[in-house]
Write a structure and sequence with these properties.
The chain is of the alpha/beta class. The chain is 48% helix and 21% strand. It has two domains: 151 residues, Alpha-Beta Plaits (2-Layer Sandwich), CATH 3.30.70.270; 258 residues, EAL domain (TIM Barrel, Alpha-Beta Barrel), CATH 3.20.20.450. The protein has 17 helices and 14 strands. α8 packs parallel to α10. Bound molecules: ligand C2E and calcium ion (2 copies).
């Protein structure tokens, strides 16, 4: 038994599966193995700590227990991987129905207000005898289906039926289209601060999609989908306008507030974008330097010539530009010289590793120096603890962003944060230079 969750552990689960396979062979009956994986569990672990992560595992196990039929077998077979054996299936389709029920019951596990995260899962299914007749073969097929579900933005998938993938992903595209029109989307705001003056600068707008049936869908899932399906323009239009509109409200509390918006690769290569930005700035009566646009190195590199031209156009408008995820791409100094940007944003993978890995610390220091040589301001993202914050301050990093300073918050929470945060109060003492 697994001590954390109280359900079967890996060994018991596998031996129960083996003996059920033998029985079902004799009865000439069908069974299904479902593998269930928690999306981004590692991020949950590193962002919220082991205690919270453990509580999530316990809750997943509880829901699994309460959704399954009594005869079915549930087990925890990896750190964040659960298995379910569905016995005596009358029809193979019932496995997908069960998966659907599971997904619905697991969607939106939340802990409490302090930890407003939504748990999302993927399920891969394999059937005995259709996809294999040993536990190893079935687990392998279920695992493949699980990976493919993840890649095609499906919540669950049965082994070997690629046709289903297309249907479901086009369904998601239609839902996204509706979401843009119905405004199921929402912007969250994460503070960006000046580490030298210890003062709020602005915030990054991060889009959120709450789908009524599927629950929370990560931007990392639907932004690429929108890019591939021609929805990125309407989506970007909505994001820009919403961000600027809310910026007007925020500036009543914090007058020099600057709103940062992310732009994806395909919009960056469109000259039309400049017109779109100009119109949005006019609509919301916003000074161009109160808007920052973040683009990743890799987005620029997808189509360097067109992107650099767009960036020049935006810079001429007076918009502030930032290179996101800096250090993860492969841009050469040659390109860096050509990019008309104001800010380098050091990727969070280096920042989060700083406290424990001296090499990450050295890389961060090198990037700060690089920024100074190119006369660019440097912001570190992914600051998760006090130690990293102070380390960055002493390294001379200009700006910062991360969970330790403030998590992405909805509009209301962000306004409260401005009211209450120490980053919006005059510093007691200037930090040592
Ligand atoms: P990004 O632009 O690199 O955004 C930073 C991501 O890191 C955000 O995830 C944020 O919640 C997370 N983060 C911030 N501070 C910390 C920290 O201290 N620790 C950890 N572990 N994570 C931190 P999110 O909101 O899920 O966004 C993921 C990606 O989705 C973004 O990466 C961006 O590429 C894309 N995205 C989000 N919103 C938009 C948007 O409005 N438009 C476009 N084009 N892309 C967006
Ligand atoms: Ca960003
Ligand atoms: Ca980033």
């Amino acid at each position: 038994m697994d001590t954390l969750t109280g359900i079967a552990g890996r060994v018991d689960f596998l031996s129960a599966l083996d003996s059920e396979i033998r029985e079902h062979k004799q009865k000439d009956a069908t069974l299904a193995v479902a593998l269930l994986d928690i999306k981004g569990f590692r991020t949950i672990n590193s962002a919220y700590g082991y205690d919270i992560a453990d509580r999530i595992l316990q809750q997943v196990a509880e829901r699994l227990q309460s959704v399954k039929r009594q005869q079915d077998i549930a087990g925890r077979i990896g750190v964040d991987e659960f298995g379910l054996v569905l016995l005596n299936l009358k029809s193979p389709h019932l496995a997908e129905l069960a998966a659907n029920k599971l997904v619905t019951s697991l969607d939106g596990i939340t802990l409490d207000d302090a930890h407003p995260l939504d748990v999302r899962i993927h399920i891969g299914i394999a059937l005995f005898p259709e996809h294999g007749d040993t536990s190893d073969a079935l687990l392998l097929q279920a695992d493949r289906a699980l990976h493919s579900a993840r890649e095609t933005y499906q919540l669950y998938k049965t082994a070997d039926d690629s046709h289903q993938a297309e249907i479901s992903s086009s369904l998601l595209v239609r839902e996204l289209e509706r979401a843009i029109n119905k405004s199921e989307l929402e912007l969250y705001f994460q503070p960006k601060v000046d580490l030298k003056k210890q003062r709020l600068l602005g915030a990054e707008a991060l889009v959120r999609w709450h789908n009524s049936e599927r629950g929370y869908i990560s931007p990392e899932e639907f932004i690429p989908l929108a890019e591939e399906n021609g929805l990125i323009f309407p989506l970007t239009l909505w994001i820009l306008n919403t961000a600027l509109r809310q910026g007007v409200e925020i500036r009543q509390l914090w007058p020099d507030f600057r709103m940062a918006v992310n732009l994806s690769a395909s919009t960056l290569a469109e000259v039309e974008l400049i017109e779109l930005v100009m119109r949005a700035l006019r609509t919301w009566d916003t000074e161009p330097d109160k808007l920052m646009i973040e683009v990743t190195e890799s987005a620029v590199m997808k189509n360097p010539e067109a992107s650099i031209e767009t960036l020049h156009g935006l810079r001429e408008l007076g918009v502030i530009l930032s290179i996101d995820d800096f250090g993860t791409g492969y841009s050469s100094f040659g390109y860096l010289k050509k990019l008309p940007v104001h800010e380098l944003k050091i990727d969070q993978s280096f920042v989060r590793g700083m406290a424990s890995d001296v090499n990450d610390g050295r890389i961060v220091q090198t990037m700060i120096n690089l920024g100074e040589n190119f006369e660019l301001s440097v912001i570190a993202e992914g600051i998760e603890d006090e130690q990293t914050l102070y380390q960055l301050m002493s390294m001379g990093c200009h700006h910062g962003q991360g969970y330790y300073i403030g998590k992405p918050m909805n509009r209301r929470k962000f306004l409260n944060w401005i009211d209450e945060s120490e980053w919006t109060r005059p510093a007691l003492a200037e930090p040592a230079e």
